[in-house]
Amino acid sequence: MTETEQKKVSGRLLVLTGFIMLATIMQTLDMTIANVALPYMQSGMGAGQDQITWVLTSYVVASAIGMSLTGYFVERFGRTRVFLYSIVGFTVASMACGLSQTLPEIVTFRVFQGIAGACLVPLSQATLMDLYPREKFGPALAAWGMGVMLGPIFGPTIGGYLTDTLSWRWVFFINLPVGILCAIGIGTLLPETKRNLDTKFDMKGFFFIATALASFQLFLDRGQTLDWFASLEILVEATIAVVAMYLFIVHIFTTDRPFLDPHLFQDKNYTAGSILGFSTGVTLLSTMALLPSMLQSLLGYPIIETGLLMMPRGIGTMIAMFVTGKIIRKVDTRLLMLVGSVLIAASLHEMASFDLNVTSALLIGTGAVQGFGIGMLFTSLSTGSFATLPARYRTDGTAIYTLVRSIGSSVGISIVSTLLAQKVQVNHAELSAHITPYNRALQELAPNLPWSLGSSQGLGILNGMISRQAAMISYIDVFTLMTWVTVISLPLIAVLRKPPKQAAPQPAEQHIAEI
Asked: What are the angstrom distances between the C-alpha of 501 and each of 75, 164, 264, 505?
């Protein structure tokens, strides 16, 4: 192959990587972009608070179920076809969501959107690992990681801007030009894989895993609203999830052609990386889910400024992924994971010292440090987890890896939401217990304060101050918990093995020619 042909192939690969990354961003963006638009949807459709959350719940449940089908779809229909079907289906469903007039309509189309787009993230990761030789996994997965992490990070900012300046419907309409561009680019440049028309679909295995995932997601999403195990519905959902998962595990170990090959988990790097990915999902995305409400409801920042304050986290992630992708071949991935985790823990520890007078500079600083740690950890973790996994397991492996991280995010968000609500009540009660006419400190300060214990108006002002302090203490408690979760997960890094050295670097164009 001549030098000119090599440059041409490398250029096509770079452009294809850009389209794959864009498709990933489009899907992950919808995980959070609709969050800030929920109040506007609720008022426009006349829905209740518990009803409008189904716009989010339906998407999460459908995505979890659809993600588990990635491996079968690729083997049966081919990689490029599945990519195109997913992009087109996701884009059409997005437009239908934006045109919806009633709550049942938008929930139905969100289900279709979740199922259609579920394959995009795991398929994009597996595709990049197929297109690039193993020694270039670091830069390739850094680009992929930008799509995965920047979507949720910038989602609230973009969603807030579109909702504030145009309409909530534009959080869905924005996918149309992106979807068309991705479909044209990937359909033109991505080589198709061989189809196995004899592939048998394990219906029983899929039924078990789909039932387990759907029940578990409903358990997490509705638990706080229904007071967890005090509700019969939550008890039923938890029981179904446990029983279905048990039957799924038994099934894959006892059938000839299981829905998921259990040999996948014999790879120590992959198993340890998946567990660490779960804990990462618990801490990071749950923390990002808390920040918008803290900034808007507690600290009084408007929606646009909230988005701007969240932006340094995304910028830090981008810089870290770029840097990590450049040095990952020269530095042990486990060291990069350790440094990234320490930065995340340090930023969470600093966030645990916030108060109601926290400055914008501190918010920006902790966000940037945490974002840098996220980027470094995510890129090195993705590379290390798949460093020793055989190529035949990549599609299933990326699907399960992404699914486990998504479940971790759901678990984390559910835990911190419940903990925050409980802590607010407890802290309010503890602070209120000190507000009595016999409190000498209150008696001395009363003449200089804008409230009085002797009037209803004064008590109302005082209660508002106590509520804000109780909420701030609760956020601090949650940030402290997330700090410890990050620290406790550090020993998992030691379980991962160092990736084997390559005999000789293989040019990307030669690798593509051999696929």
From this structure: 30, 52, 22, 10
